Structure formats: structure tokens, C-alpha cells
Amino acid sequence: MQWGLIPFWSPDSAKAKTFVINNLNARAETIFEKKSFAPSLKAKRCIIPVTGFYESREVNKEKYPYFISLKNQEIFSFAGIYDTWKDKESGASIKSFSIITTEANPLMAKIHNNKLRMPVILTKENEMNWLAQELHDEEIKHLLQPLDESLMHAHTVDR
Q1: What percent of the chain has pLDDT over 90?
Q2: Is residue 69 helix, strand or coil?
Q3: Is the whole-model pTM more than 0.70?
Q4: Residues with Cβ within 8 Å of residue 79, at least 6 apart in sequence
Q5: Is the model's pLDDT at 159 over the cut of 90?
């Protein structure tokens, strides 16, 4: 899959390219209202397996990269949404996804100190819940919360 969700209804390849750039992430706080994301949120939820991710902390206009992972899980999952867009000109189908972000927990607020965001990290217990088709809006919202910082580990890495 390609990172940067292209909604199924995108009219042409030029607009699809714009969506890729603008839809890398979907904000949990507005995901229900955004035309690009809402249909996928209802029926096309996915998990994105990762071993960790990078974010930078800014201090005096200098960026210091960190690698963030979970303390007791080598592989974990981000909450995501996906869609398939068909290019009317070429006939090609492109599968794409967005990572859902939420407000930063205290650890991530210290690292990602400009935007105060973090990906929605699903616990092992919530992975199957996230994929369940019969979720109601309130159940989805409940899963889109910041992960407890005590489960996370972060360390600086070389630029």
C-alpha cells in the first residue's frame, strides 16, 4: 500500500497526487468530519505494524531525532484507514492508507514539542477491536486515545 490516502472518489490523477501529500496522517479529532477520511473510518480500518517510529524534538531551532518504541513489544500497531482508488485514465488501482494521529501523551509532547501529536498506537488487546466492522462512533473514538507513556521508550539517534 501507498502511504497517503487517496479516497475512492478522487476525480483524477492530479487530485490524487494532492491527496497523497495531504493525507499522510488523519487527525483523530476531525476524522469523522473529513470527507476524505470518514467513509474509510466506518468500513476500512487497518493496522500498520511497526517496530518503532522517529520524531524530532526542536530546541533553539535545532532538531534532535528520537526513536520511539514500546518497552515490552518488539512489533506493535498504529491505527490506520485505507481505500482503493481507480485511475480512470490508466485503469490502475492504487491502494493507500493514512496513519491516525492523536494528541501527544506527556512523553511525546516533550519530543514532538511543536505539533504535540503522536500516532494512535493500539494495544495488542485493541487490535482486533479496531478491525471489528460493527464498531459504533463512540467505540471508535474510545480507541483513538494516546497510549500510556509508561508503555513507551524513546532515545535520541544520530541525525
Answers
A1: 98
A2: strand
A3: yes
A4: 45, 47, 48, 99, 100, 119, 120, 121, 122, 130, 143, 144
A5: no
Answer yes or no: is pLDDT of 132 > 90. Answer: yes
Q: Do residues 82 and 126 make contact, with C-beta atoms less than 8 angstroms apart? A: no
> What separation in angstroms does the CA of 102 have from each of 60, 76, 128, 136, 147?
25, 17, 20, 19, 10
Give the distance, in angstroms, between the CA of residue 39 and the centroid of all CA atoms in the same chain: 16
Q: How far apart are CA 28 and CA 38, in angstroms?
A: 11
Longest dimension (CA), the chain: 50
The set of residues, in sequence order, having a beta carbon less than 8 Å from that of 153 and lying 6+ positions away, is 68, 69, 70, 71
- Residues contacting residue 116 through CB under 8 Å, at least 6 positions apart: 103, 104, 108, 109
Query: Counting Cβ atoms within 10 Å, is residue 89 exposed (0-12), middle (13-18) or buried (19+)?
Result: exposed
Q: Taking Cα atoms as reference points, which of 81, 36, 56, 59 lies closest to residue 157?
A: 56
Helix (H, G, I), strand (E, B) or coil at 47: strand
